[in-house]
Amino acid sequence: MVDTKVETISRLAQWRIDNFGPCTYKRSDPFKVGMWNWQLSVEKNRYLYIRLFPEPSRLSKEQPPIAKFIIRVTTAGNNRRPYISPIHERLLRTSEDFVWPVDSTFHGRFIIDVEFLDLQVYSVNGEEASSIWPNATMLRSSANDSILRCLSRMLHDEIDADVTINTCDGTLKAHKAILSASSPVFHSMFLHNLQEKESSTINIQDMSLASCTALLSYLYGTIVQEDFWKHRLALLGAANKYAISNLKDLCEESLLEDINTGNVLERLQEAWLYQLDKLKKGCLTYLFDFGKIYDIRDEVNDFFRSAERELIQEMFQEVLTVWKPA
Questions:
Q1: Each residue of 304-313: pLDDT tens digit?
Q2: Taking every annotated instance into account, which residue ranges of this chain make up the domain BTB (predicted)?
């Protein structure tokens, strides 16, 4: 066997050195593990110095590896007592980035094993490093993508759809199992001997076809940002009506993001109607702490004529809190 050749299988690299003297330096041929070509070198002085590094290339320069690995050094004779390194994890660019000194005398034949536990691509742009090998996160992500593709096809192509939804301006097909799993209200409809169970029909006359399509897209995991933003208020009403708590929370957080003088009173009314404390507090803070109530005096006067007494009382309490004497 050539003294510089490294054999590889899976994530293991093995270098068999047949002849090594007391003062010797050897470098292996390049060997590939993962995306990169690697090299090993050994140098004997007082210690045995082992280095692992990627072969200089454009790839190793632009996408240097973060390697997590163990090195084992074993004599080739009958008395094979291995020297095992700790687990190393570091960014490797050059032959100076990693060296392991082994405090032992090795002459003649011995074996160096490198076991790669993980290899990540380091981002020179400061992004998070990512593993090149499948891990639990990647597998879950792949499985989730597969599920979403299936659900999207079921909804779009009406595969085995078993319930009809009547909106104020059109009908849609859906699946009882998906609706039941997403909402305790829908689950109750199909569980008990209600009209929806007997007719396999749900009447949602307070939603348009477009808004209800957005609702189903959310429940099936296929909604896009543009549709969510366009139908937020309708989705909030549906989330409250059908007890879809995660959607309700998402709508509240979204409505908090873009409060302005043109929508703050409407948002405040929605927050009161659906008991959204964070949104209500955000609207009151915007109006009183930031003084935006002066910019919409006429609108506020109209709002006071129609708003609930309890809401007006809360607004008055907020005024007293903000404008209390120093």
A1: 888 788 888 8
A2: 161-220
